[in-house]
TrEMBL record:
UniProt-listed InterPro entries: AAA+_ATPase, ABC_transporter-like_ATP-bd, P-loop_NTPase
Domain ABC transporter residues, every copy: 2-227
Protein name: ABC transporter ATP-binding protein
Pfam assignment, any one: ABC_tran
Length: 354
């Protein structure tokens, strides 16, 4: 278990982390979300005693990090995959860590095998691809067989097979009763991996809730209906007290109804349907809705053409909103309006609902 209480970090006048209080519990994968610059990495660094809090505390199984003897046996972390010594082999990088934490040499072979790097164990890590570097970083996190694991953007640079592998690894570790805390900008991936979410914006806690509740509370779910007898369908819906909103392509969107109820209604009135589909909101839409007010960097589509803020787009157009997380994010109050801030792009959501 990780417990934060009033955790705060200031860099000069910038409040990077602002009075964060939450717990990360064992047995589930907890996702850590927030827009760029929200304070996720700073929070994780303070959890590992790599940054000193301005105020507040972090407890790892009830203790401060520096009270842990051989901390790798309590908490393993992947923060920056490039932190390995490039001139050393994968094996020697892990061996050094193992020796300084009194971890048996045999464990190095085990974790190299777990992450699929046994064949390149003797190769210098500076020649590793981004994906191999991520795997080596994950191996170092697993080395002490810790009960708590933290991963900052673990799927960065991994190919689809690698992404699948890390997802299953995190789920399996959580199923063993371990505490898994993971940040990612890949919303579709997070939706498949995390059971619980901590969401922050501008350093402050915005949500501490289950994945299902987060999506339910921050986005819209509705049913799409399409019929060659649209006028008749409209009348029937109206008679039965449903409000239908017409969308592109003659589609009717109905909030607050189930596909079962609408399908039976259409059958009763002998209205032909060409489409009857539940549109579940995606994590990406819910996330953008929630964090709209705390996004620090806003995109511009090109000279003079600003895209709507993610939250505004989330209310109506998931596709456009997704596009807003690509390249070209600008800080709106930047002293240099021409400067762009490169960011991680999120992938599009798997759902089509808005
Ligand atoms: N060493 C530092 N000195 C000054 N400001 C910093 C420092 N580290 C972080 N910050 C600022 O603190 C804020 C939080 O940064 P942090 O890297 O923790 O955010 P993040 O949520 O991890 O962002 P991203 O998703 O882009 O990785 C940002 O405004 C950042 O510029």
């Amino acid at each position: 278990m990780i417990e934060l209480e009033g955790l705060t970090k200031r860099f000069g006048s910038k409040v990077a982390v602002d009075q964060l209080t939450f717990q990360v519990r064992p047995g589930v994968v907890t996702g850590f979300l927030g827009p760029n610059g929200a304070g996720k990495s700073t929070t994780m660094r303070m959890m590992l005693d790599l940054d000193n809090p301005t105020s507040g505390t972090v407890r790892i199984d009830g203790k401060h990090y520096n009270e842990l003897q051989e901390p790798l046996k309590y908490i393993g972390a992947l923060l920056d995959a490039k932190s390995m010594h490039g001139g050393r082999s994968a094996y020697n990088n892990l061996l050094c860590l193992a020796q300084s934490n009194r971890i048996p040499r045999s464990r190095v072979d085990e974790v190299l095998n777990t992450v699929g790097l046994s064949a390149v164990a003797k190769k210098k890590s500076k020649g590793f691809s981004l994906g191999m570097g991520q795997r080596l970083g994950i191996a170092s996190a697993l080395l002490g067989d810790p009960e708590i694991l933290m991963f900052d953007e673990p799927v960065n640079g991994l190919d689809p097979e690698g992404i699948h592998w890390i997802r299953n690894l995190m789920k399996a570790l959580a199923a063993e009763g371990r505490t898994i805390f993971v940040s990612s900008h890949l919303m579709s991936e997070m939706a498949l991996t995390a059971d619980h979410l901590i969401v922050i914006g501008q350093g402050r806690l915005l949500a501490d809730t289950s994945m299902a509740d987060f999506i339910h509370e921050n986005s819209r779910s509705y049913v799409r209906l399409r019929s060659p007898q649209q006028e008749r369908l409209r009348d029937v819906l109206h008679q039965e007290g449903f409000t239908a909103v017409e969308a592109e392509g003659g589609v009717l969107e109905i909030d607050g109804a189930t596909t079962e109820a609408l399908g039976e209604l259409a059958a009763r009135h002998q209205v032909v349907l060409h489409e009857l589909s539940a549109q579940r909101a995606s994590l990406e839409e819910a996330f953008m809705q929630m964090t709209a007010g705390s996004v620090e960097y806003h995109a511009h589509s090109g000279p003079g053409g600003a895209l709507p803020a993610p939250g505004a787009a989330a209310a109506g157009a998931a596709g456009a909103a997704g596009a807003g997380w690509g390249e070209g994010w600008n800080k709106p109050d930047s002293a240099d309006p021409g400067s762009t801030t490169g960011t991680e792009g999120t992938t599009g959501s798997t759902n089509e609902g808005a």
